[in-house]
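Key idea: predict the complex, not the pieces.
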Amino acid sequence: MTETISGTGTSAATRPVVPVLEAHGLVKRYGNVTAINGADFELHPAEVLAVIGDNGAGKSSLIKVLAGAVVPDSGELRMDGQPVSFRTTRDARAHGIETVYQDLAVIPALDIASNVYLGREIRRKGFMGSVLRRLDMPAMRKDSADHLADLRIGIKSVSQAVETLSGGQRQGVAVVRSATFGRRVIIMDEPTAALGVRESGQVVDLIKQLRDRGLPVVLISHDMPHVFEVADRIHVHRLGQRAAVVRPSERTMSEVVALMTGATEPTERERAGGS
Amino acid sequence: MTGTPTAQRMAEAPPARRVTLAGVLRQPLLGPLAALIIAIVVFSIITDSFLRPQNLSLILQQSVVIGILAVGQTLIILTGGIDLSIGAVAVLGTIVMARTNDASGSFLALLVVLVLCALIGAVNGGLVTSLRLPPFIVTLGTFTILYATTQLVAGSATYQVPDGPLTVLGETFRIGGFVTTYGVVAMVLVYAVAWYALSQTAGGKHVYAVGGSPEAARLSGIRSNRVLMSVYVLTGVIAAIAAWAALGRIPNADPNAYQNANLETITAVVIGGTSLFGGRGSVLGTLVGTLIVGVLRNGLTQAGVDNLYQNIATGVLVIAAVALDQLARRRNR
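Result:
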């Protein structure tokens, strides 16, 4: 994993950085509907990039392309400047990109450790694992407990079923899951949409912790106060394109909302992608 | 700003552990086990014959065919489906087994039926996964087709099976004072293997995931169709084993036997605490559910209660089990 580059918010603006993940000229059409109309995207190392946009602006489609869930009709994707292509979410994962979905994509009846390792289970060594396919539950429990502790999520036992947890804790499990396997990028699609005020606060804290550990986070959110609290840069999506990239220190919430709806025009620098 | 407040807030969140109704209901095996013990105690008191070793042995032997089939039914219900054809697959299996045995010997008979039943499972699974049809409709259709096919293959006759490899599961042996059959051993083995696969392997976790939350399973990179296909094929294999056990129990393949087997397996699964909504339950629960039905039927017979009242008792039990499941789900939401 890359070493922590926390607090680079200002220096990143002054010297050129190679984006961890970038996209240029993405197009995706569904029949007559153009969901993505030549969109660009840039995620810098160790930053929280918020992606905002009105309903139907095409931000979900953009995120799905980045997560490998949708294959674009044209356009290019790069990681660390190198071209990549994702045909499935598995491809994106193989590149270290993990996604946390808004609808709490965990299995309620399974325990926490099984959820964290779902689809990537660890088997025992030797005959028990290779022939009898036995899972190494102790290892998975221990690792999950360690990762939960790393992110300071207080859960008594990783053997308890996810359905016994609060909404915030469930989202915590989903975040731990992505942080465990997301070596390069974490994408969070409306992670607080299903949560209450206090639980949303917990998730915002988790996002900051991920950034402080050097993992860049793409945060899709409608919640402007959260976006302004946690984002280093804000990608404003409008009519299937990137309309602007702004810094929360340079714009007010109402200005950003105006950019989002097209009521105001962005500056040249913002239109060009900020820095 | 970061860190410490999170830790404190998150640590506060879970409520203190108390024994609540919802908590008890979340221990899925507890209810069925209690019901089984109560039934055994009650029948031991009201009848003289119930607790005799040969009667207990009989209950186990009577439970073998439905018990084995119920394992397959559990797998399918765990994925959120239901299999109405499972009993009909086994009955067709017995007829084909008996006729192939007459023509080409018992080894081939077992092999042919194993492949046939696995193929029928694959057809069910293929229709469910590729055409996205509801399992209820798919298996209702295959049930009807299989029932007619069985009559055609049998030509409305029954087939006596000579003693040999096909009837070996009906042979008895003695442990201490307790006489039992190899069929009972086969049933226990099927349960043991299914328990291991479901609880100790990744494939088992994926069955729960696909049944409990299909969308989350997909987003987790689980190939749901592959999981579903394996479950339906395995259920076919289990039906073949049940067909073999059925010939051990009664060495006469009858196209009209086991007509209620489909519903009886669902009864055993549901009484055993597995949720009809998928993703929740266990084969151990199903074993207990099978035994509850077996004990209830046998005990009521011993007590001189009419067959029809036994059906009423079983029906009440099914509804009670599903009601408890619903209650548990509502508490969890």
